[in-house]
Structures are given as C-alpha cells and as structure tokens.
Amino acid sequence: MSLSFIPVLYYFKLPLKLDWHSLKYVLGSSILNIGFMVSAFYGIKYGYAGAGSVIITTFSPIMTFLLVAILFKKQLSTNQYVGLILGIIGGYILLQLNDFALFLNSSNLYFLLCATIWAGVTILSQHSQKHIHPVHYSFFISLIATVVTFFYAKNDTQLLDVFSQGTAFWIAMIYLAVFGQTIATTIFFVASGKLGSQKTSSFMFLVPLFALLSAWLILNEPMQLHILIGGAISMVAVYFINKATHTRTH
C-alpha cells in the first residue's frame, strides 16, 4: 500500500511534509488502523466476510456519530434520534443480541470492535485535514503501520513464507493494497472535493450490498436472514443520522 501511494503522490504534486501538529493525528490513526486490521482478520477467520462487511460499514457511521455527540456534546435532531433508535434495532438483529452467549463467542464481537475503532479513525482524520493533505495522511498512516508491524513480526520464522504463497494469495494481497486501499481512498477524496462529502458518503450504502453478493458468488457464503434484515435497518438508520435538517424561511 505504501509503495502504491508513490504514483498518487506524484499525481497531486504536493510537497510531502509532516509537522508536529499533524504527527499526533497520524500516530493515533496508525495505531487504530493496526487494531482495525487485526480485529478484522480475526473476525473473518472465525466468521463470514459478508457479515463483517455489513456490520462494519453500517455500524462505523453510527459509532462515529455517537462518539462525536458524546465527546463534543452535540445536540441531536429528530432525524438523528430516529436514526439512533433504528440503529439499536438493526444492531440487535445484526449482532444476535437475543442470545448474548452466542454474541460473546461469535466473530460479530470482532466486527463491532472494528466499527468502533474506525469511528475513532474517522474523527481523527476529520480534524487532521486542518494540518495535512488527506492523501499524505493516508500515506503516512500506511508507512508507520508498516514499520510498527514489521518490528512486531520480524522475529517470526514464518515471515518470509509470504513469498512462497500462490497466485490466489498475491492477487488478493495486491487487490487489497492497491485497489481496495490506495486507489479507492484517492477516488473517495477526489469525489469528496467534486461532489461534497455528504453526497460522496452516501455511496457507502452500496458497500454491504456488493459485499454480500461477492461473498455469496466468490466464497459461497450463505445469505443469512438476520444479516440481511439487520443490515437493511441499519442502513436506513445511517440515512436518518446523516440526513440534513432543512428549515423553511418565511
């Protein structure tokens, strides 16, 4: 991912710099990003990729909203209250909270942790834009995460086994690093500048749909009814939370 950012950095032709003001945001997001990746991999190891994609993408904006409301004491609108209620209902169905023992022993706990961590990353990235360009921000996060995880893994005797993996592994790895991270992030930031953040973020509603279809077609994962119902309710919840409140002037 770090290497694939080089042509993107060249495209934007902005001087690459990192001052003390932006460093605290980059370090914080790097640590959270590592936690997100570890939690996501454990979730997929023990659960379904389709379920994880729905839980993470629908819960992240809800958790972000809750953190912002609590930390910055923002007053809620009627739409946002409706969204929170729907979010609770959707979460109850998605996470199978009717069987608490099942929830504690399931991969859904990892996916919920992912959503909470990503909410922190979202808040940090929003405040970081006062000090650093978003593309530079993503690049430094990937670079620092690479260095930190290397020191953690460097004594592992199986570290170099990655080079003995087959074609399927490398296709997946390159797709995740280049297309899923670098290119997707760049397109998202470019779209935010042209369409506005609110309209751009609305396209995230398509992620659970495509993820479920991909998991079904490629991984032969079953279409779980509670994931479909809970995911749909949660997506409606995110819509209400982000819906702008319009006031009529007389």
Can you describe what's shown?
- It is a single chain.
- The chain is mainly alpha-helical and 250 residues long.
- Helices cover 74% and strands 0% of the residues.
- It has one domain (5-13, 22-155, 169-242).
- The chain contains eleven helices and no strands.
- α3 runs antiparallel to α4 (78-94) and α3 packs antiparallel against α10.
- The longest helix has 29 residues, at 167-195.
- Low-confidence parts lasting 5 or more residues at pLDDT below 50? 245-250
Order of helices and strands: HHHHHHHHHHH
Sheet with the most strands, sense and barrel status = none
User: What is the radius of gyration computed over CA atoms, rounded to a whole number of angstroms?
Assistant: 19 Å
Number of E-type strands: 0
Number of domains: 1
- The fraction of residues in strands falls at under 5%
Helical/strand content category: mainly alpha
Distance between the termini: 53 Å
Report the total helices.
11
Shape: globular
| Average pLDDT for all residues | 80
**Helix content class:** over 70%
